[in-house]
Design brief:
The protein is α/β, with parallel strands linked by helices and 396 residues long. The protein folds into 2 domains: 8-175, VC0802-like (2-Layer Sandwich), CATH 3.30.2130; 185-390, Rossmann fold (3-Layer(aba) Sandwich), CATH 3.40.50.620. It is 39% helix and 20% strand. It contains 13 helices and 15 strands. Strands 1, 2, 3, 4, 5, 6, 7, 8 and 9 form a 9-stranded mixed beta sheet that branches. The protein has a 6-stranded mixed beta sheet with strand order 14-13-10-11-12-15, with helices on both faces. The two termini are 21 Å apart. Bound molecules: adenosine-5'-triphosphate. The site of adenosine-5'-triphosphate (ATP) has 18 residues, from helix 5 and strand 11. Pathway: Cofactor biosynthesis; thiamine diphosphate biosynthesis. Belongs to the ThiI family.
Amino acid sequence: MHPPGASTVLVRHGEIGTKSDQVRMRMEGRLRENLAAILADRDVPGDVHVERNRLYVHTDAVEAATSAVTDGFGVVSASPARVVDPTLDAIGDALVATAEAHFAGGTFGIDARRAGETDAHPFSSRDIGEVGGRAVGEALDAAGFDPSVDLDDPDLTLSVECRPDRAFVFCETRSGPGGLPLGSQAPLVALLSGGIDSPVAAWLAMKRGARVQPIYVDLGDYGGADHRARAVATAERLAAYAPDQVDELSIAPAGDAVERIAETTHDHRMLVLRRLMLRIAAQASESAVGVVTGESIGQKSSQTTANLAAVQRAIGAPVIRPLATWDKDRVIARAREIGTYNDATIDAGCNRVAPSYPETGATPAGVDAVEPADASRMAADIADRVESIPIEPRHD
Ligand SMILES: Nc1ncnc2c1ncn2[C@@H]1O[C@H](COP(=O)(O)OP(=O)(O)OP(=O)(O)O)[C@@H](O)[C@H]1O
């Protein structure tokens, strides 16, 4: 929803503003590039500009541009806005036009603030609210409504952000993911099974600024026909959030190794397998500094706190588990929001590998004792044969 004549999207970031000037400017520049890439990928016209603590998209497609930029990591919110001169008359006219376009009865409120050097204007935020409110009330009366003002929870909020050189009028603020611009942290590898959890975990790592290289471990006969397709589909959704930075899915051919592990291990089987995956992931990328997984404490027998600790020892790099403390219903809700849920609901291949009586209180030494002696070499050999397939961003 936008004012008639809106031609700009006001983009707000959050944590970036708490950084030192140097870091903030670097992150804002990164965010500008990322938003430009998302717009280009979706064929939405728009030029992205940075000013201190704000980004602006100049576009003739404000709705599509607002939807696109609110997928950008680091964006807290965005509003499609009309830009007018910073005078009470011009702001009042834009408020009236916006109310006439969108008021459908009930209450309205004006939320006005000034930013930048506030002594640049001969009026206060309160003046904007009073003069604008009066003009809007009269216009709505004339249009046959009987409007009343509610400043706490109005049916229509008309917002003004008045800066020294121009004022923005808008009537909607859409939330973005927040976090930090993608690429502002060193990259990570994400173990992506295509299940419900791992795409959410990868997305959360991306939200904190880390570009992820997704890797799917092909379990061979234990995987199932649609297992790989599901991983591809969720990687395509992740790519929609970072079209210039996530463009490949790595596939590790682990069928023979999984078969061997299934034949030679029993209660520790899932832990040996998970260690294999971590080793493959850690070796599959030269630039990544850690491995992201979708594990969550206690969600499965292989994910007790003891087992997570025993598995972690396989690699020196950190295992990052963004969902460690999340309940499943929260993970599912987020998977729906980010568009990875539908592709992820088929049973995972790992379920076919799981033993009947899994170990839940493993120790690192206990896993060491049952792991094949050549486990590291096995992983290195698989990592050498990792194949990368191109991923196209999927928008749905
Ligand atoms: N075939 C696989 N390829 C890549 N990573 C995998 C694979 N199977 C499991 N993982 C990783 O190990 C984690 C824990 O495995 P688990 O068996 O719980 O996964 P899942 O239920 O198959 O999928 P998810 O955890 O994504 O819902 C996953 O979140 C994922 O990070």
